[in-house]
Every structure is written in structure tokens, then in C-alpha cells.
From TrEMBL, chains A, B:
Pfam families (alphabetical): FCD, GntR
Alphabetized InterPro entries for the sequence: GntR_C, HTH_CRP, TF_FadR/GntR_C, Tscrpt_reg_HTH_GntR, WH-like_DNA-bd_sf, WH_DNA-bd_sf
Originating organism: Henriciella marina
CDD domains named among the record's database cross-references: WHTH_GntR (cd07377)
Keyword Cell wall biogenesis/degradation: no
Taxonomic superkingdom: Bacteria
Protein's UniProt name: FCD domain-containing protein
Sorted UniProt keywords: DNA-binding, Transcription, Transcription regulation
Gene3D superfamilies given in the database record: GntR ligand-binding domain-like, Winged helix-like DNA-binding domain superfamily/Winged helix DNA-binding domain
Domain HTH gntR-type: 13-81
SUPFAM superfamilies from the UniProt entry: GntR ligand-binding domain-like (SSF48008), Winged helix' DNA-binding domain (SSF46785)
Amino acid sequence: MSNKADIKSLKRSPAYQLAEEALRKMIMEGKLKPGEMLPVEHDLADQLGVTRPTVREALRKLESSGLVVRGARRRMVVSAPSPRIASDAMLQAIVLHGISYREIWQMHMALEPMAAGLAAETIDMDLLSNIEANLRHTEDVLEDPEALVEADIEFHDLIARASGNHALLLARAPIGEFLFPAYGAVINKLGPGQRLLDAHRHVFNALKVNDAETARDWMTKHIRDFLRGCEMAGLPIDEPVHKVNQDWNLQRFQRESA
Amino acid sequence: MSNKADIKSLKRSPAYQLAEEALRKMIMEGKLKPGEMLPVEHDLADQLGVTRPTVREALRKLESSGLVVRGARRRMVVSAPSPRIASDAMLQAIVLHGISYREIWQMHMALEPMAAGLAAETIDMDLLSNIEANLRHTEDVLEDPEALVEADIEFHDLIARASGNHALLLARAPIGEFLFPAYGAVINKLGPGQRLLDAHRHVFNALKVNDAETARDWMTKHIRDFLRGCEMAGLPIDEPVHKVNQDWNLQRFQRESA
DNA sequence: TTATGTACTATTGTAATACAATACTCCAGA
DNA sequence: TCTGGAGTATTGTATTACAATAGTACATAA
């Protein structure tokens, strides 16, 4: 009637974890709503039946998952987690699992054409003129590697936003974080990007006439070109990204965490 | 010569945050490698020039981002964040930002064909025979909605793994979390999935002969079919996922957090 | 000899307390 | 109305201590 599978490992959770779960539950169930201030640490400690250090450990955990943030008067306020939390987690995973540039690029190869295709179907005049302005700007900075990379980033961001797909924006963020620095290295080696500008123009023209097929195709070409550029520049694309970034001194983790 | 933009807000970070960043940096840069044990709290405190409670707050933050986990002898060990961390963050973002089923599906529409295409180029005999076994199993459970969904999930997982792209696996996880329950709802309404089995078979055959093009095409058809199924079943695909899941009682967040 | 019990030790978990640093409030005074 | 400063609330950090637990080594009993 009893076998060893019945024993359920029983490990008590430490108090700081119980405290975290209690708070998290209150937030998830809506008893504490985003924007609301948490009680002060001392009161929290009393209410939860633990001491301040314990409460603080729980708060740090919630802080890291984005459920609370430091508010106006230094007080902790409940918050809906920002997309950055998800994006940062992804970024970390990419670095620490030794994912290669090629893998990142393959993702790019799936996502950017998708973005272009969707954008072609739904883009509005506003974003369209933004992209046009971006193209003009790109012409001007064709000889300035740094500015060119920035313009390129903006172009792709605009397309992604034009796609109207928020899941795409989430997934794209960490990808770009790695690829665009690499592009900087490529144009430093191979010179300015006339091909880049051409491709961007073709995509733009396709968006203008709502031609999803063509937008996708040109974007695909464009991304493939990028990989060729990396290969020609000698970037070891099958190495883990963190290694490549180290060896090439690519700027990364630029975003300050505060 | 000086305007107010010059003043850079200067806010000193608290010590627990500096400590966290110091440790995080060491981990991200590979000075502390996954699997390695951290020094005991007391020593950490000494090395960082802070006290134990402060170190503990930093550790709780790292714990929440998955960079360290409780190891064998209760000691903290460095860890490559499990995909779960990234996936959970993404999931949270998807829910809390009111992303719609259509948006999730569009991502699926980009990622699954990509997976199939890559898999066709690189798949090995081992995984291929796994997929074959999965197909045979799928035939058997065609009349059992629950088992069928499970088989479907397994099929797509196998393809994704066969792609050899770890970034794809990361990005795919939260997507599937939402879509597969929906598929369950669809077959409950529309009956068994002969079309599903056909599509799976075509993809498999393409993989077998390393025909990436065909694998991609059939997967695309398959995913498009899935959306049609959702529409026919009356699933309100333009509503935020969390709302749909509520209304339809789809199983979600099944994964226990402990 | 093997197994069981037992003290010992290292480390984490938690409490209690204290004080410094800072941000906010409010009031006096120019 | 603005400025400056005292008072206060709250967070940030240190200090110390002790309880709980997992690992270790050794002793004892079968």
C-alpha cells in the first residue's frame, strides 16, 4: 500500500521565498494593483510575520521579475513588468548558452522578412514618411560608419513597429542587440553600404504599394547580404556570440541597467 | 555653454545593486562559469566590501534572473539561466501587454517554417526516427483529442530541436505555450485532424530527403491551416491571449512555479 | 565488517538592533 | 513668493547573534 514513490521529497521553503510568493500572489490576484504603493518595509515585515532583512530579500526578487519598481518617494510600487525584462532575460540566455552568430542570424532571417511582409499590409502614412526620412538620412551618412549603423537600426525598428506585431517586437529586441554591432564591424572592414541603401529603398517602395511579397523578398535578400558581409569580413560566425563580441571588441551591454 | 541637459541626474546605486552588477558581470564575462560554486556569503561580503545582508539581497536578485541557483550542499552555484527563465518572462510580457492570438500566430508562422527548413538541412538519423515514431503514434491517437494535441506538440518540438538552433528553441517556447492549448480547443470543436497528420507526413518526407524548400512550404501550409481552424472554431483571435484563454478555459500556466 | 548513532563543523536562514543617508513636510523669515 | 532649515519618515547598511541544517568524522553496536 505504500511504496517509496509516496515520499515527496519535502523541502521547506525559506521565509524570504514564502514572503515573495505571498506578495506575488497578491499582485497577480489584483489585491495590489500596478501603480499602488507597497506598505513600508517595517509594516510589511509585521504583516508577514518576518523581519526587515527577510522582507527586503523578497522585495529584491520581485524587483528582478519586474513586479515592483522603485517609485516616486523611493517607495516600492507595484508595476506591470516592462518588455525590457523579457528582452534582458533572452539576452542573457543567448550569451550564456553559447549561442552562435549564425543561429542569431537565422532568427533574424525569419523575423525581418516577416516584419516587412506584415508592414506592407498594414503600414500607415505616418510611419511610411518616417521611413522615407530615414532613407534620406541614410544617404547623408553613407560615409560615416557609426551613423550608418544607427540609421540601419532605426530602419529595421521602424519596419518592425509598422508590422503592428508586439510579440515580434519582444522577440526582435535581443536579436538586434547582437547583430547590429556586428554590422558596424562589417562596414568598418568592407566600406560603406551602397547595397544596404538599395535594399532599404526596395523594401520601402514595396511597403508604399502594399506589396508584401516583394517587401519580404527584398528583406530576405538584405539579410542574406548581411551574412555574406560578415563572412567576407572574416567574422567567425559559428563561434558563440559572447566570444565573437569579445574578440572583436563589439560594443555590447551598452544599455545601462539603471 | 551649459544647459540643463548637461546635468546627468546622478543617482548613486545602492550597494546591493552594485554587488549584483559586479557578480553579474563576472558571470556574463565568463570569469565565473556555470557549474562553479560561489564563495560562501561571508567571504563574498568581504570581497565585495559589504555585509552579509547586502550580499544576500544581491544574491536574491541573481537568483531571480536565473544566474545562480541553489546547488548541492545548499551552496549557490553559477548557472546558465534555464530557458524557462527567459520563456517565463516572455510569457508574462505577452499576457500583461495584451498581445493577441493573431500576433502569436504570426510569430509561429515565421518560426515553424524556419525550423522545418533548417531541420531539413541538418537532421540526423536519430531525430528522424524519433519523428517517424511520433507519426505512427499520431495515427493511433487520432480520435483522442488530448493525446493528439500532445503528439502534435511533440512533433513540432522535434522539428525545432532538429533545426539545431538554440535561439529558436528559446523564442518558440512561450509561443507554443499559448498556441497548443488553442489547438486543443479547435479539435474539440471540429473533430480529429486528418489534415494535421497529412501535413506532418509531408514535412517528414521532405526532411528525409533534405528538401528544405518543401519542408518549409508544407509547414507553412500546416500553420496556415491551424489559423483557419481557429477561425472556424470561432476563437476570437484578435482578442488578447489572456482574455481568450479565460473565456475558453484553455489550460495555461499549468507549470508550477516551485 | 557493516551499519547505526553521535558529536562536531561549516554554512545558510533569520532575528534584533542601531545608525547613517536621504527625501519629504512644514514652518519661519526675508 | 521664495528660501532655508528643523523635524520626520523611510530606506540603506552594518553589526551581532543565534537557530537550523547538511556534511563529516568518529565511535559504538550488531
